[in-house]
Amino acid sequence: MSNYYSEEIISSWNDLLSFYYCNNGEWRGWVFRGQSDYQWGLSSSLERAFKDFDIVEDVRLKKEIGLVRRFKRQYHLYSNNVPDPKSYIEWFSIMQHYGCPTRLLDFTYSFFVALFFSIEKNGFPKGNGITKKSEASIWAINIKWLEERFKNKANQSVRKLLDNDPNIKENDTVQEILNNPQPFILNINPLKFNERLVSQQSVFVMPLDLKVPFMDNVRGVSDNLKVSRDNIKKIKIEYTIDFLKDAFYELNRMNINRATLFPGMDGYANHLRMLIAIDNDDFLVSYLEKY
Questions:
Q1: What is the rounded distance in angstroms from the CA atom of residue 101 to the CA atom of residue 70?
Q2: Rounded mean pLDDT of 130-153?
C-alpha cells in the first residue's frame, strides 16, 4: 500500500523544522492531517461505521443518503440556522461537527496545526517516558495537483460545471460529482465556515466512491507511482517526552493550542494540561506566591 505515497521520518524538533522549512515553497497548496497512531491509514468516520456494522458495499450510498435525510428532517429542532436542503457539503459539515458519521475527513492548511493534533491526543508516551518512543503521523496532500488530476479524470458533464465553478461551491456541481462516483479524493469546503473551521484552518477531503475504502480512493488519484509519491506523503513523528516538551512550547508560542483551536471553556480547560509540560516561569513560582 505504501507504493503510492512517500514516507519521511522525523525524531526531533530540529529535524522537523529542517524538514518543513527546507520545503517551505513546496508546501504552498498542500493540506495536512495529523493522526496519533502511525499505523493508521486514512479512514472516514462513515467508513469505520460501515465496517463496525458489516454494511456491504452495495448499500453504503443508500445508508449515507438515509443518514443525511434523517439529519435534515430533525436538525430544525436543535437550531434555527437551517441550510438550503440542497447544500450537500454544508450538511455534511454540520453533521461532521456534531459527531455524526460522514464521508468527510478533516485536514488543515497548517502543517503545525496538523502536528499538534498528531501528538496532543496521546499526551505523553506511557512507561519510561524519557526513552520510550511513540509514533504519530502527518499526512500531506498536494491539493493543487489533486484538483488538476480531478479535472482531467472527470466526465464531460462535471468538467462543464467546473468551468463555471472551479472551487466547487455550487450545489449542482457537488450533486453531479456525487452522482458520478469514482475512486478518487477531493478537497472541498462549505460556503459558510463555523468558528472551529476558521481557527483550525480546516479543509475537508472526501472520497467519491463509498464502495471502496478511503485509501483505495487515494490510490485512484494517480496511475503514475512516481508522481503520486511526489504529491502524497506520510510523515512519521517519532517522539519522546523531550520532543513533546519542545513541540508544545513552540506550538504554544505559535498560538496553536486547545484554547485557540477549540474556542470556549472546554478548549481552554484542556489547554491547561499542555502547559504542565512547558518550562515557563509562571509555573516556577511558589504555590502561595501564585495564589
A1: 13
A2: 88
